[in-house]
Amino acid sequence: MKVLTTGPRCFSQRDIGEIEMKVIEIDGLKKSFDGKIALDGVSMTVNQGDIYGFLGPNGSGKTTTLRIVLGILPADEGKISVLGKDLSSWGNELGYKVNALPESHGFYGWMDAADYLRFFGKLYGIQLTVGDCRSRLSQVGLDPKNLLPISTFSRGMKQRLGIARSMINAPEILLLDEPTNGLDPRGRRNIHDLLLHLNTENGITMIISTHILDDVERLCNRIAILNRGKIRYEGALADSSSRDCIRYHFRVEDAQSISSDWNIPGISVVESREDRLVCQIDGLSPAHAIKSLIEAGMPIAEAEQITGGLEEIYFAYTRGATDE
Amino acid sequence: MSSLSVLIKKECAEDILSSRSIYFFLFASGLMSIFAVLLITNRELSLLDNAQAVYKMTTIVLALASLVTILQGSDGFAGERDRETLEILFLSPLSRKGLAFAKLGRILFSWLVLFALSIPYLWAVGSTGQNLWPSIYILFITGTLLVLALGGIALIVSARTATLKSALFISVIVFLILGSPAVLGASLRQTGIGKMIDLVDPFMDALNTIDSVVIDSQGFDFQVLRLGIMALYALIVLWFLNVASRRIRL
C-alpha cells in the first residue's frame, strides 16, 4: 500500500518513548520593545534529541524568543534554563554549547568558504586544518575546492555554509531561524536531509523557527505555535495531526469491497465513487484509521491526506494574525 | 590564539583586503603627494619656513587620521548591523567588550598604516630642517591619543544607532564640533574663553602640541598638560566604550 502524506521525518530514539531530558525550559518569558509587547508569558520545553518546530506568523515573536535563549537579547521577565543551568549563569560559555543559524546570517563577502570556517573555528579556539575545512564543506554539500569569495555564492550555497558555520563548535543545541527561506524545492529538500542527518547521526537537538509547514512536517517531532507573543499550542506533531478531523482520499483495489452499511467508529464516508472514497477521520490517528479500514476488509491501495493536519491546526491557532 | 586577537586579525585583514580601505589609503597617499609637491615646488608655498611646511603636513595627516577613524568607528557596529554580520559575532564566545576593543584595534591599525604612509612625505618636506624627528614622534603620540578618543566616540555612537548612516551623521557632527575651534580667529583664541576652549578640546590640544614642538621647538615637558588632557579624554572615552559595549544594539 502506498500512503501519500507530506512525508514524515525519520523518527529518532525520543519518538519511541525513551527517557526525555529537558535541554531548554522556558517559563513565563516576557519581552517588550518600547512598550510594545513582543512576548507575553511564553513557556515551552525542548527535550534532548528533539527537532522542535517553532511556528508562527511573521512578527509573532519567534526570532525574539530564539535571541533571548541565545543570550543575545535580555528578557524582561521569566525563567530560562539551558542544559539544566539557568541562562544568566552561562555567560560567554553558552556559545560553546549552543549555536544558531540566524535569519540574517550575513557573510564576509571577501572571504572564501574555507577562510570563513577557519575564522569562526579560531573564535571558538578550534584550529581547522585544510582537510578539516574540506570535510566540513563536503558534509554540507559544498565544493571544498571552490576558492571563490563568498560574495559570489548563491543563496543555497550561503545557507549551506551558514549551517557548516553553525556546526563549527559541535553544539549540543542548534537553533535555526527560517533555514529554508528563499530556497528552491530541491535546495529545501537537501537542507532537510542534512538537518535530519545531523539530528540522527550527531544527536543534535534542534529548534527550527519557521512558517513553512512543509519544513515542520518533514523534520519536526514536536511543535509549538506562537501567535501574538503567546504559545497557543505545544505538543508532539503526531498529536497535532490527530487533534481534529482529517479527510483522506482512499483508492481501493476492489470497488465491490466498499460496504454499503458502513460502521467503523471514527471514520465516516463523505463521498464514494467507483474505487475511490473520501473519508473523514475523527479522533483517530491516520495510521490507526487505515489499520481499522484494512481490518474491516477494505483492500486499500493508496491513501492521501487532503485536508486537516498541521495546516488546519496552524490556521486555527493563528486566527486573526496579520503580518507585521 | 585568543578570540580577541583572532577578531583583531580579521578586522585588520578586512582593512587591507576590502576595497573601501584601499581606496581610502590611495586617496590619502594622493592627497599627501599633491601637498608635498606643492610645498616643494609652488612659488608661494615653497617660501614657507621648513618647520611650517612640516607642521602643515602633520595637520593634513591628523585630519586624514580623524576622517578614517570616524568612518571606521561608525562602521564598527552599525556597518556590521547593516551587513547582517553582527548577530553571528554575538553568537561566538567572544564578549561584547572584546568585540568593542577588537573594533578599536582595527582603528588603531588603520592609524598605524596611515602614519607609516606619512613618514616618507614628512621626510620629503622636512629632511632639510631640524624638526623632522620631533615632528614624527609628536605626530605619533598626538595621533594615537586623538584616534583613541575619536574612535571610541564613533564606536559608542555606532553601538547605539540603528543604521550606518545615522552613526556617520552623528560622528561627523561630533568631529565638526571638536574641530570647530581651529577656524576661530587668532584674536578670539587669545581671549580667556578661547584659551579655555583650546585647552579642553582634544583636537586643538593635538594641533597646539604639534605647533609647540615643530614650530616653537619646545621640549616634551612643555606638552605634558595638553598630552595629559588628551590622555584623560582617551581614558574617559574608553571607559564609556566599555559601558556601552554591554548594550550594543542588535
Structural class given helices, strands, pairing of chain B? mainly alpha
Number of strands of chain B: 0
User: What is the 3D shape of chain B?
Assistant: globular
Order of helices and strands of chain A: EEEEHEEHEHHHEHEHEEHEEEHEH
Largest β sheet strand count, sense and barrel closure of chain B: none
Averaged pLDDT of chain B, please? 90
Largest interface: A-B, 24 and 22 residues
CATH class of the largest domain in chain A: Alpha Beta
Number of domains of chain A: 2
In whole angstroms, the N-to-C terminal distance of chain A is: 44 Å
Termini separation of chain B: 27 Å
Task: Provide structural commentary.
The complex is a heterodimer of chains A (324) and B (250). With 324 residues, chain A is of the alpha/beta class. Chain A has 10 helices and 15 strands. Chain A has a 6-stranded mixed beta sheet with strand order 7-8-9-4-10-11, sandwiched between helices. In chain A, strands 1-15-12-14-13 form a 5-stranded mixed beta sheet, covered by helices on one side. Chain A has a 4-stranded antiparallel beta sheet with strand order 3-2-5-6, with helices on one face. In chain A, helix 3 packs across helix 4. The two termini of chain A are 44 Å apart. Chain B is an all-alpha fold. The two termini of chain B are 27 Å apart. At the A-B interface, helix 3 of A face helix 1 and helix 4 of B.
Short key terms for the protein model shown above:
heterodimer; A: 324 residues; alpha/beta; Rossmann fold; Alpha-Beta Plaits; 2 domains; 10 helices; 29% helix; B: 250 residues; mainly alpha; globular
